[in-house]
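Lab notes, practical 5.
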Amino acid sequence: MTITEIILLRLYNQQISDNPSSTPEQVVTWMGAIQAQDYAGAKWSLGLRLPHGTQSDIDNAIARKAIIRTWPMRGTLHFVAADDVRWLLKLLTPRIIAGSASRHRQLELDEAAFNRSHDLLVNALSGGKQLMRNEVYAILEHAGIATAGQRGMHIINYLAQKQVLCHGVHNEKQPTYVLLDDWVPVSKNLEGKEALAELALRYFKSHGPATLNDFVWWSGLKISDARECLNSVTSVLEMIEAGGKKYWTGADHPEMHTIPSTFLLPGFDEYMLGYTDRTPILAAEYADRIVPGNNGMFMPTIVVDGKVIGLWKRILKKDRVEIEIIPFEKISKAQIKSISAATKKYGKYLGKSVALVG
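Output from the prediction step:
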């Protein structure tokens, strides 16, 4: 299999070029987890993977508690399916918490501070209450627990990773926090080798073809644990060699041929962030355009036939959305036409008319 076929198969397996799921929770379950640092972008990551997905569909899935926004891996916000939230947190967060110990000491956050915060917030949020971040901070400050200097966010992260808190429904543009036990009373329980095997299957089937190092990056597991869980599921995966590397993917997939396809992806989409090596889809000379100033903020991308050819920005108006395109190089009329077609899906997702500018 060629590198071109590999990236086309990734588009297919990630449900970007093929949309077999019918609900946001089906997409998230298939993917294992979807990056969700950028809330609006993460919702579009789900919408573009649905045949007729709208922003309202994603909002409804969050409101009916079918998908959960929390910190299961790498200390980074993700959407996960409600049924998966506890076993993913249990499997992946102990290593994150241990790795944060020195930062917690710098912030003078010890077990006593976390325990007091736990008791205060459980009491304040019990009964299904949702509080915005400033309200959470006010409760802590009132009890003498300082939240400045990132202390407040570290407390929230820690309690989320301990399966106490998670995100609720956004209040306008502000996140809210809820008690996980109130929000999702029951979820799947997987442990040990069973959980590791399930995580590996989810990743390689949805993100494959991918390497072991890709899986280590994505999951945050130790390489020994990642190798063990990959080895436990190789019998149901296909191994592909290309460019001197071994890739793994689900055994059932169609033959990949170059079919003209254009997509507008949000900045933190799994197609870009789900792998250690981005050179198959992004020319090295344009890498700094994706993350300007290396500030950790990924720009939305235009993907044509699996390759990133430029950036896009949205300008929201009252009844329409304007899409500005910033190609890396001169593009053809045919490419402009295909980009224009891709913007229509985004317009339908938002429920607005769309205009291409730039």
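Observations recorded by the TA: The chain has 16 helices and 13 strands. The longest strand covers residues 307-316.
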